[in-house]
Amino acid sequence: GFLNCKTYYLVLFPCLFGLEIAVLPWVLDAALGLSAYISNFNGRFWCVLFYHAHRMGHIKQVYPDAHKFHHFLHDCTAFDAHIFGSGAPEEWLILMCDLALGLGLGCMPASLTYNVLGVSWYNKWGFHTRSDQPAFHADNFHADHHAFHRVNFGLSYPFEVLMKTTPSKSTDLLEWYGYEIHRVEKDGAVHLKFSPLPHSPKHIPVKRGSSGRLLVHQSTETL
User: Fold this and answer.
1) Are residues 134 and 37 in contact, defined by beta-carbon separation less than 8 angstroms?
2) Beta bridge partners of 179
3) Residue 90's closest CA among 4, 11, 18?
4) Which strand (E) or helix (H) includes residue 195?
5) SS3 for 206?
């Protein structure tokens, strides 16, 4: 994947050779969290947007040219992750925006801002690095997507249950974040029922990712 995360900065840095970047705005933005505030505001809809954008990348006619090289290996590595890290069109657009900001306006490229660097770093260890937890554990939510390709398109299990794209397509009941999630489909509508588990703590720490904790009710059928 030439433009896909692995060599992104090797392309960006030579193109921006000689560009002088003001450090003070970078520090102020990092300290005040201005970019993070804007990003979090738009991120309210990111779970739904990412799922559909990612799943479109797996469409048979789109996949070979847009997303296949992101799945070149049969598992994920930290080198597969960038700010978006999904494939050529996205990485190409981000690269063009960075070059326009740097070469055209003399500004700092977005990929080098404090917030974007943080998201990119988190994407590496939080989603594109397999942990020592068993398969289908929340810590390996996106890593399992790289292993099985046709499941876990989004960011967390509730939306996958809603769309019926969990590792087992027959899974309508699972445990997540101290709740039991039951998928009910009736009269053309799909509902998710969240029932608190007895004796579950009020706060369940999630070390990696935002996918929560998948415990049991997982089928071993062949994917």
Assistant:
1) no
2) 176, 196
3) 4
4) strand 189-196
5) coil
Amino acid 100: pLDDT = 93
Question: Whole-structure pTM over 0.70, yes or no?
Answer: yes
CA–CA separation, 103 vs 18, rounded Å? 10
**Which residues, in sequence order, are bridge partners of residue 196?**
179
Which of 60, 218, 68, 214 lies closest to 146, judged by CA? 68
* DSSP category for residue 103: I
Report the length, in residues, of the chain. 223
pLDDT in tens, 61-76: 988 888 887 887 788 8
3-state helix, strand, coil in the chain (%, to 5): 45, 10, 45
Please give the angle made by the CA atoms of 132, 129 and 71, to the nearest 5 degrees: 125
Run of H or E residues at 193 = strand 189-196
For 3, list phi and psi in degrees, rounded to 5.
Answer: -100, 5
Rounded to whole angstroms, the Cα distance separating 160 from 157 reads 5
Instruction: Please report the sign of the dihedral spanned by the C-alpha atoms of residue 50, residue 52, residue 55, residue 61.
Output: negative
Q: Are 123 and 81 in contact (CB under 8 A)?
A: yes
pLDDT digits (tens, 9 = 90+) for 14-59: 999 988 888 898 999 999 988 888 888 877 888 888 888 888 889 9
Distance from the first to the final alpha carbon of the chain: 26
Joined tokens for residue 18: 């000689």
